[in-house]
Amino acid sequence: ATPTALLVGTGRGAQLGILIKGPEVLESTRRVDTVVLDKTGTVTTGRMSLVDVTPAEGTTAEELLRLAGAVEAASEHPIARAIARGGDFPPVSDFAGLEGLGVRGRVEDHEVYAGRPALLRDAGLTVPAEVGRAVEAAEAQGRTAIVAGWDGAARGVLAVADTIKPTSRDAVAALRRLGLTPVLLTGDNETVARAVAAEAGIDEVIAGVLPAGKVDVVKRLQADGKVVAMAGDGVNDAAALAQADLGLAMGTGADVAIEASDLTLVRGDLMAAVDAIRLSRRTLRIIK
Ligand code: ADP
Ligand code: MG
Known about the structure:
Bound molecules: adenosine-5'-diphosphate, magnesium ion
Radius of gyration: 21 Å
Order of helices and strands: HEHEHEHHEEEHHEEHEHEHEHEHEH
Number of helices: 13
CATH topology of the largest domain: Rossmann fold
Largest sheet: 7 strands, mixed
Family: Belongs to the cation transport ATPase (P-type) (TC 3.A.3) family. Type IB subfamily.
CATH class of the largest domain: Alpha Beta
Protein name: Carbonate dehydratase
Number of domains: 2
Subcellular location: Cell membrane
Structural class: alpha/beta
CATH superfamily of the largest domain: HAD superfamily/HAD-like
Strand content: 15-25%
Distance between the termini: 7 Å
């Protein structure tokens, strides 16, 4: 491949809304056979909304929202923004963001937790059966269930909904036509992940992966002989994006994700990933 022809390829990429780190990137793009897609913010819009509030017995919806909203107001996560939207919350101290699990902080005289049920259990809070049922009901509808609790027990469930991007389904179908296998990867739970995968037309799902585990998923696929493209948008995707044979960052995502990647899809649209692969194949065919 002559450098000049590859540079022509990268110029065409810019026109398509794809920023390519260097001409050599087109080579790895061409060989990819597996595309790992992060769920939140990549396949979905990541603009979540709070759709349901279910307090446990002895707690009101107002109290649940007020205390959970107060800790979430200190977090940048899309889930946090949905829960803390628009409200006027009491101040939080000793805030801690527990990556891939949830948040914790002191609000008034309570140590408040909000996140996965496992976060609360690990912190020694009891999770009443009615809270467990509310989690299952939310997840069965493809929603992410956030449990909030304080003073020794889970106090209720906040259900958050996300929607897939309008082009995700077409992009997945086009990736398949190019001979690639799409895999959905997420820190979210299996039930929600399956619902999103079905909507996007993806068969393979790897769910419940902690942020540090995403890179191991990519390594495992590579050890199986796959040539892996990874598309992601979050801080928690950066290591996996760097490990992948081809890292694709959403232009709408975190700076560290963009820095760790080989290609940036400027508009955050997966259809541009399809264009990038087509472009690399075409460019390298011309050069041969
Ligand atoms: P994804 O891989 O889909 O981008 P994350 O790794 O960011 O998801 O988060 C995984 C899970 O951790 C979420 O589904 C949620 O249950 C929990 N979580 C993460 N951040 C928060 C937060 N700020 N508040 C509540 N729960 C959170
Ligand atoms: Mg994400």
